[in-house]
């Protein structure tokens, strides 16, 4: 199973790219959002990947973060949702948007993706609501996937290049994970904690861990 690719971006098409890894080309399908965030042709690119193998099909799908890859896997586990629909949802909402929509039961946001009907959107929210807390707490960005990029390209460059250092999980991911952990320690259930943190993060995307906890506790407080 291929879980990550690091190489040169050889070409890009409407829904996929070709990554050259030491002379071997891999076709990788990506969402519109992921494609828009990739570097130019000839530059080094790294993506986490998920491979689909069937009797008459073998395809790779690429994602800039571990959280997005996990959402793709979970979305495809829902009845009636294939890779194309999953990429449409992730392209429209992004992994953070998917997390918020599912944690809050906001199937209308999921339905906004191309090719997603109301019944499918409702099924996605219902089936995956309990999965949201775990994915929301995940870190891992494309910057971390770039670790080792120098090893891939050193054979084609006369001068050695310094190995890029892996990046720490993004501040938003770390804040979300910390807030979820704090609420769990206070006795809140995973689903209600995830919904509160998702709503708090949606209202204040740049909030730190302490601010998220405070806002989530306000949302969870009994209404008088």
TrEMBL record:
Belongs to the RuvA family. InterPro entries: DNA_helicase_Holl-junc_RuvA_I (IPR013849), Hlx-hairpin-Hlx_DNA-bd_motif (IPR003583), NA-bd_OB-fold (IPR012340), RuvA (IPR000085), RuvA_2-like (IPR010994), RuvA_C (IPR011114), RuvA_C_sf (IPR036267). GO terms for biological process: DNA recombination; DNA repair. It is found in: Cytoplasm. It comes from Ruegeria marina. GO terms for molecular function: ATP binding; four-way junction DNA binding; four-way junction helicase activity. The RuvA-RuvB-RuvC complex processes Holliday junction (HJ) DNA during genetic recombination and DNA repair, while the RuvA-RuvB complex plays an important role in the rescue of blocked DNA replication forks via replication fork reversal (RFR). RuvA specifically binds to HJ cruciform DNA, conferring on it an open structure. The RuvB hexamer acts as an ATP-dependent pump, pulling dsDNA into and through the RuvAB complex. HJ branch migration allows RuvC to scan DNA until it finds its consensus sequence, where it cleaves and resolves the cruciform DNA. Keywords: ATP-binding, Cytoplasm, DNA damage, DNA recombination, DNA repair, DNA-binding, Helicase, Hydrolase, Nucleotide-binding. Has three domains with a flexible linker between the domains II and III and assumes an 'L' shape. Domain III is highly mobile and contacts RuvB. Residues 73-92, 108-127 form the Helix-hairpin-helix DNA-binding motif class domain. This is Holliday junction branch migration complex subunit RuvA. The gene is ruvA. Residues 173-224 are annotated as: Domain III. One of its GO terms (cellular component) is Holliday junction resolvase complex. The keyword Transferase does not apply.
């Amino acid at each position: 199973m291929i879980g990550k690719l690091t190489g040169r971006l050889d070409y890009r098409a409407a829904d996929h790219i070709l990554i050259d890894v030491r002379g071997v080309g891999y076709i990788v399908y990506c969402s519109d959002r992921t494609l828009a965030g990739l570097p130019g042709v000839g530059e080094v690119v790294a993506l986490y990947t998920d491979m689909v193998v069937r009797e008459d099909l073998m395809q790779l799908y690429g994602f800039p973060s571990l959280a997005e890859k996990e959402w793709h896997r979970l979305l495809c586990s829902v009845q009636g949702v294939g890779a194309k629909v999953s990429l449409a949802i992730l392209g429209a909402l992004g992994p953070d948007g998917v997390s918020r929509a599912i944690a809050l039961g906001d199937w209308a946001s999921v339905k906004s993706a191309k090719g997603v009907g109301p019944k499918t959107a409702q099924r996605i929210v219902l089936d995956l609501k309990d999965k949201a807390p775990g994915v929301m707490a995940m870190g891992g960005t494309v910057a971390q996937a770039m670790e080792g990029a120098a090893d891939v390209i050193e054979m084609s460059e006369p001068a050695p290049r310094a190995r890029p250092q892996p990046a720490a999980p993004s501040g938003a991911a770390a804040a979300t994970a910390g807030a979820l952990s704090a609420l769990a320690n206070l006795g809140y259930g995973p689903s209600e904690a995830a919904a509160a943190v998702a709503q708090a993060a949606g209202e204040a995307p740049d909030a730190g861990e302490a601010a998220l906890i405070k806002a989530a506790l306000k949302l969870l407080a009994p209404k008088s």
